[in-house]
Amino acid sequence: MHLLVCIKQVPNTNEIKIDPKTNTLDRSGATSILNPYDAHAVEEAVRWKRALGGTVSVLTMGPPQAKEVIQKSVELGADRGYLLTDKAFAGSDTLATSYILSTAVQKIASSIPVDLVFCGKQAIDGDTAQVGPGIASRLNIPQLTYVERIIEIKPEQQTIKVQRHIDGGHEIVESKLPCLVTVEKEINELTYAPLPDMIRAVRYHPVVWSVSDLDADINAMGLKGSPTAVKKIFTPKQRAGGEIWKGKADELAKKLVPLLIGDVLSCRQ
Questions:
Q1: What pLDDT sits at residue 154?
Q2: pLDDT at res. 242
Q3: What's the CA gap between 79 and 16, in Å, rounded?
Q4: Mean pLDDT of the chain
Q5: In this structure, what DSSP letter does residue 213 have?
Q6: Residues of the chain with pLDDT under 50
Q7: Environment class of 258 (CB within 10 Å of its CB; exposed 0-12, middle 13-18, buried 19+)
Q8: Which helix (H) or strand (E) holds 180?
Q9: What is the pLDDT of residue 237?
Q10: 143 neighbors 133 (Cβ within 8 angstroms)
């Protein structure tokens, strides 16, 4: 089986600040990491590779330094990586990003057919959860989102059965392969990489593709291909601390009820 994982390099959100002058994210002091959801996607792909045999490829789009998350994925057990980097990709929103990644998936599949595409549920720097489904739509393959457990994969029957997280519970869904899954963090526990994989990761150099290597429409990527744009980012005002009352229940009730009635009357006006 050929399992392909789409990954992303993101800023560590614990270190992100907002520039008060430009109202944009100040990433200058933030370290870059492998998107946590994507790390679990790589881990899951590697587990199924070991169970069923095959190979795991990872794919990312970003600046040249994004090769670091490919090396991290190799450390986790991936076999090969592809880096899409070009100024033409800059400014791509989720629609354009899914288009670029899907064309790369098709190029990879033309030489090594892809059975299953993995994505993290969402990227922590955007939280849209749109790119994975966008890739599946572009590739015209089924999508299984919010997967918290892969129950079975049957290569001979070309089927996969998963448990999806839904509001108030979960559901069991079966699909034909090839398909795309987006995974929750609960799908597995990340393991420590063995020393040989760590050494291989440091020495690994991914396949690098620019826009000229893809059979793609340049007008469908970057700012030209992005119908959405972020106009402003701001920090919500911090709420004032609540007032704490102490005393007997009946006394506090007499004090509270008039306030509640006043709020209700003001809402009706």
A1: 96
A2: 79
A3: 32
A4: 90
A5: G
A6: none
A7: exposed
A8: strand 179-183
A9: 78
A10: yes
In our burial notation (b when 16+ CB lie closer than 10 A, e otherwise), range 114-152 reads: bbbbbbbbbbbbbeebbbbbbbbebbebebbbbbbbbee
C-alpha 52 chain-centroid distance: 25
Query: How much is the pLDDT for 236?
Result: 74
* Angstrom distances, CA of residue 85 to CA of 101, 173, 194, 212, 239: 11, 36, 29, 11, 42
Q: Taking the domains of the chain in order of start, what are their residue ranges?
A: 2-220
| 123-159 pLDDT, tens digit each | 998 889 999 999 999 999 999 999 999 999 999 999 9
Phi first, then psi: give them for residue 178, nearest 5 degrees: -75, 150
Q: Amino acid identity, residue 251?
A: E
Q: State pTM to two decimals.
A: 0.82
CA of 11: how far to CAs of 27, 33, 53, 188, in Å? 7, 6, 33, 23
- What are the helix (H) ranges across 53-193? 67-76, 94-111, 131-139
Distances (CA, A) of 155 to 34, 45, 151, 161, 173: 29, 14, 13, 12, 17
What is 139-158 written as a DSSP string? HT--EEEEEEEEEEEETTTT
Beta carbons of 150 and 39 less than 8 angstroms apart: no
- CATH number for region 2-220: 3.40.50.620
- CB neighbours of 176 closer than 8 A, spacing ≥ 6? 142, 158, 159
Contact 183, 119 (CB under 8 A): yes
Owner of token pair 């963090």: 185
Structure tokens given for 9:
């390099």
- Cα distance between residue 148 and residue 141, in whole Å: 20
- The two three-digit tokens of residue 81, written as one number: 């990586």
